[in-house]
Amino acid sequence: MRTLPPAVETGFRTLESAGSFGVAEDDLPERVARVLRDNFAFACSLISATDTGPAVEIEPITGSASWPVVAGNPIARLSRFTAIRAENGKLLMESPLATHRAIVRDGELLSALTALTGAARCATLPSGPALAALASCGLIATADDDGGFTEDASLWSFHDLQSWWRSRPGLHDYPVGASSDRVMHRSGSRPDGFRPGEAITLPPVDLTRLRSADVTLTEAIEQRRSTREFGRPITAGELGELLYRAVGARDRGRAYPAAGGIDELTVYLAVGRCTGLPSGVYRYLPAEHALAPKEDRFDPAVLLAAAKGVAGAPQRPDVLVVLTSRTSELAGKYQGLGYSLTLRNTGVVYQNLYLVAAAMGLAACALGFGDNALIQRALSLRFPEEIPVGEFMLGTRQEMQTD
Ligand SMILES: Cc1cc2nc3c(=O)[nH]c(=O)nc-3n(C[C@H](O)[C@H](O)[C@H](O)COP(=O)(O)O)c2cc1C
Known about the structure:
Blueprint (H helix, E strand, L loop, with lengths): L5 H13 L11 H10 L1 H7 L8 E5 L14 E4 L4 E5 L2 E5 L5 E5 L2 H9 L4 E2 L6 H9 L3 E3 L15 H9 L10 E2 L21 E2 L5 H7 L3 H7 L10 E2 H12 L1 E2 L2 E2 L10 E7 L2 E2 L4 E6 L4 E4 L6 H12 L7 E7 L1 H7 E2 L2 H23 L1 E6 L4 H8 L7 E10 L7
Parallel strand pairs: 10-14
Antiparallel strand pairs: 1-5, 2-6, 2-7, 3-4, 4-5, 8-18, 9-16, 11-12, 13-15, 13-17, 15-16, 17-20, 19-20
Helix pairs in contact: 2-3, 3-5, 8-12, 9-12, 11-12
C-alpha cells in the first residue's frame, strides 16, 4: 500500500478543513499547489478571483472527472447539450458530456454565455478565463482545427441524451436506484372520468383448456408479426382473453414482469368495432377482469384514426390499447429511474400483447408514439401524475374472415 508524502497529506487536510471558504494557493504545500495548478489551472485562477467571490464554481460530478485544459484561445460555443437551470437557489450548468458541473455566480459571465450561443473566441469576451474553464470541462464546446464542432454531427437530441444520462449512475452524482428512504407517492384514487360501478365483466378465460390446446411458445414467436390490416370485427371474448393472458391479474401480481412490481401501468381501450362490446373508451380493471366505461362518451374513432395515421395503416384498428403510467410511484422507489423503468415495463407489455395475439391468431401492431394532448383529453388524465407511455393496435387478421 502506498502512503501519501506528509506534505501532500497536510495539503489535502488544509483543503478539506477550508471547506467552502476556500484556501489561498500560497497556504498549500508547493507539491499540492502544483497538482492543482497543472490539472485545474483555470479553476485556480478563478478561486483567487475577487472580493465578491468567483464568477463560477466548478465541481466534479464523477469519480473519473478529469480536466483536459483547452490550450490557446479556441473558437467556442455553448454546447447544445448543456442545460442552464436553477436548483436550490443556484444557477447550474450541466451536460451529459461533461465530467463537471458549474455553478454560475456572476451576471457578467451569464451575459458572456449568451454571446456564446454563436461561435466566438472566449478571450474576446468578458469573463474570458471563466469561459475558458467551462470550455475545459466540456460545458462549452470548442471548435476543431477546421472550425467545425464535433457535436454538430451527433444525432442525439438534447432531451434523449439528458434522459439516458440521468437514468443510469456513473456519469453524474445524482441519486439513482433503490432508495432505503422510499418516498411513497401514491396518487390515491384513480383519476375520475370512468365508471367502475358500471364495469362490463369480460368472459372468463379457461386457462386449463389453453394449457393443453394453445400453440407452443416457439410457434407464437415464429407466427408473430406486426399487422396493420384487419379482417372481421374482433369479439369481446377474444379481447377479454387477450387482456387476461397478456396483462391480467394473477395471485402473485400481473401476467407480465415489471421493474419495481409497483403496478404503475394502467390499460385503457378505445374500442371501435367489437362484437359483443359497445364502442367506447374503457379502463381495464385487472382484478375484476372488467372494463369500466368512460363517463363522457369520448368518441373512440378519434383515437383509432390517429393510430391509423401513426402506423400509415390502410384502415383503423378495431381496438387501440393505450398504456399509461403513474411514473412517480416508480420514481419514489427508484430515484431518477421512474421514466426509464416504466418505458421498459411498457416494452414488456408490448411483447406479451404481441405473443398472445400471435397465439390467438389476432392482428397486432405496436406504435412508437401517440398524441399526448389527444390522449390526455380522451382519458381525462391528470398530467404529469399519469402519462401515456404506449399505444398498441388490435384487430383480427384478414385471413380470419368468417364464412
Ligand atoms: C416499440 C415499438 C414501436 C413501434 N412503433 C411502430 C409505429 O409507430 N408504427 C408502425 O407501423 N409500426 C411500429 N412498430 C412495429 C415495427 O415496425 C415492427 O415490429 C418491425 O417493423 C418489425 O416487423 P415485425 O413486427 O412484423 O417483425 C413498433 C414496434 C415496436 C416494438
